[in-house]
Design a protein that fits this description.
The structure is a homodimer of 391-residue chains. By secondary structure, chain A is α/β, with parallel strands linked by helices. Helix content of chain A is 39%, strand content 22%. Chain A contains 13 helices and 16 strands. In chain A, strand 9 and strand 10 form a beta hairpin. The first copy, chain A, is globular, with a radius of gyration of 23 Å. At the A-B interface, strand 1, helix 1, strand 13, strand 14 and helix 10 of A face strand 1, helix 1, strand 13, strand 14 and helix 10 of B. Chain B binds a DNA duplex (30 and 30 nucleotides) through helix 1, helix 2 and helix 3.
Amino acid sequence: MSTTTPSARPGLTPLSTRAKATRGQTRTNNLRLALQIIFSDSPTSRASVARASRLTPATASDLVDELLDLGLVMETGTGPSAGGKPPKLIAPNPEGRSIIALDISSSLFHGAVVDLSGEIVTTRSILGNTGDAAIAVVADLISELAVSSPAPLLGVGIGTPGVVDVPAGLVTSANLGWHDAPVAAELARATDAPIHITNDAQAAALHEYSVHAPAVASLALVQVGRGIGTGHVLDGHLFQGENAATGEIGHVRLDDGGKRCSCGNTGCLETVASMSALLEKVGGDQTVSHDRIAEVAEDPAAESAIEAAAVALGRGLAPMVALFANREIVLWGEVTSLGETYRRIVEREIRSRVLPVNTEQIQVRYGTAGDDAVIRGAAALVLSSELGVVW
Amino acid sequence: MSTTTPSARPGLTPLSTRAKATRGQTRTNNLRLALQIIFSDSPTSRASVARASRLTPATASDLVDELLDLGLVMETGTGPSAGGKPPKLIAPNPEGRSIIALDISSSLFHGAVVDLSGEIVTTRSILGNTGDAAIAVVADLISELAVSSPAPLLGVGIGTPGVVDVPAGLVTSANLGWHDAPVAAELARATDAPIHITNDAQAAALHEYSVHAPAVASLALVQVGRGIGTGHVLDGHLFQGENAATGEIGHVRLDDGGKRCSCGNTGCLETVASMSALLEKVGGDQTVSHDRIAEVAEDPAAESAIEAAAVALGRGLAPMVALFANREIVLWGEVTSLGETYRRIVEREIRSRVLPVNTEQIQVRYGTAGDDAVIRGAAALVLSSELGVVW
DNA sequence: CAGCTTTGTATGTTTACTAAACATTCTTAC
DNA sequence: GTAAGAATGTTTAGTAAACATACAAAGCTG
């Protein structure tokens, strides 16, 4: 026991062991490992899986056979010889399972069926609602998508605004009129598939992570649109906190006094750094949309307002960088239409407010995903929760 | 594989599997589990270990036998019968291993030999130094303590001020005149025992956690003395970040303008909320010590200065609470001598600046440990790193 | 075509958890 | 004071899953 294997990466050191380990868990771990290798290096071979996993060829072969039996992967023919017997190629089986992914963070609820290769197969949108009716709308959306699903359901993933209590399955969202709404329990009556709910910013963070993993192990996604919220992947783990109200940085009061915020308080970060706040200052059409923000970005008269919003955001993010020692800070939401000038001011402002040791390696950039980041992140949540795999 | 065992606690969802699992790891995990149970419920019995671990009596018995062989636990006689054969009691063997723990965060370097029951067996202090000489002093301290160690060394734990790059073993500290100093590598020449270095606030957080685990799974320790720094345990994991500069909240710039800080910047949280800042405002003896701070706490003339410091700290901590959704916020350092009024203002200020959903359950309290928290935390770091156990 | 390389499988071993029976030693009830 | 019962802990046999080794299959290279 003295020769402890150190955790593969630094960052989060587990302090003690909590549950027994069994052969079955060993097997599950290795099945997931093999599946991840196949997802990452597709198409690949049994021999490659053995090399990448450091398992023996016999074990790797056996694992692949079990994954074939489960329908999660498939043989796709024969590959080129590397000086010997040519490999039988193994790849994810897109039609092995379906994932239903939902984004209910805007007034239109968006849903999709996603296959195991991460492709969106079907989409459907319904006008949203609030309160209990909203849950009913979501349940309908799931049922409709389930009918069109071409494969057994792996699970349902939902990205919602507000705060999610994951273990209890409760959601609190002002927009949706939910206060500790038992969304998971209600939806469980609409489908047998496991349901995974997360905050929209966390879903987007997960998607961003899955695009860049494993090169990037940690990142902070900062959603700036009508409001401001963050989602965090720390050392390959989605950080959801004890009561899941993590990343609610938009409602931190920066200034005493200050404008009144939708939360009832005054001087929140959102009142100075959100895109709503920017539009309020600029005047004209107040609809927070990519088009409208892009319009503002081009407007010379808006220059100082944009700078003020950028400075405020940088100021709000500085403590985050000091606490998490983030390297990757991804801006996402309507803010992505503001362009390079804005981004540079945010980065400069963070740098000027935090120790150099924390900012030497930071990178502030816009998210690579478009409007489907929440949907794709919700699907990624199901994939990682059910199969332990990241696209 | 579809029947995934959900992680025992929420908070940190692992996204994918990174390394193969083997029988050996199963065994190691279960040895650690058994050891943790014995540490937590000492004295206990083989049958109790089986029940608590959910392993079969045969396996639990075998694990305990191996722990006995390793000298980590011992039989301490026979316990009272519970209606049948009385148990042979099992307890940690205090003399099974020794841990050398160091606190080099003040001008006097403190060292101790700690036994496996967490008792401090020997202490020694040497006047510290800076630069390469400081490393030499630390090496001497380790050697001296190693000589007086009554048992085989489990490892050396060090709590240092500044920033630690754990994987590389580098330390950067203004106080000690270290910039990426290869402390781990240098000390490895003084001892064969594994060396674990962490930030002083993180060490204190670890100690605080070990006092309250497993009732508390996460906590933030806020060290307020000459400077301000935080250490975080998240869901039973010590959070050290990617480049380990986590928790450096003292040097976040709150106000443009503001006083000059030791870091070279202006307006840092430390310049308004540290105990140095408080003393500067109050006048008189400027030595940051418990006695001096207690004196200030009693001084009616200092009331407004204390309130200002408390307000500033609460303001600085608000983003932390919003991001981590902390429930337990532990104040530690010389600040603990400021008393209840100060604590209450800090708590009030945090509550007024963050969403209610984040503050409903928070508790701001003073640390339970005294000046030996860093030493004890450094020892706990060794114990958890080498044996996977928390006291 | 011989020899080498790579892929993949087959056979048997080892490790460590499980299951079930049992031995041991105490308490309780009659 | 003896029998029944209960809790502790061990023994024996069984099994899952990784490992070690050998080897078959299928290609490339000279």
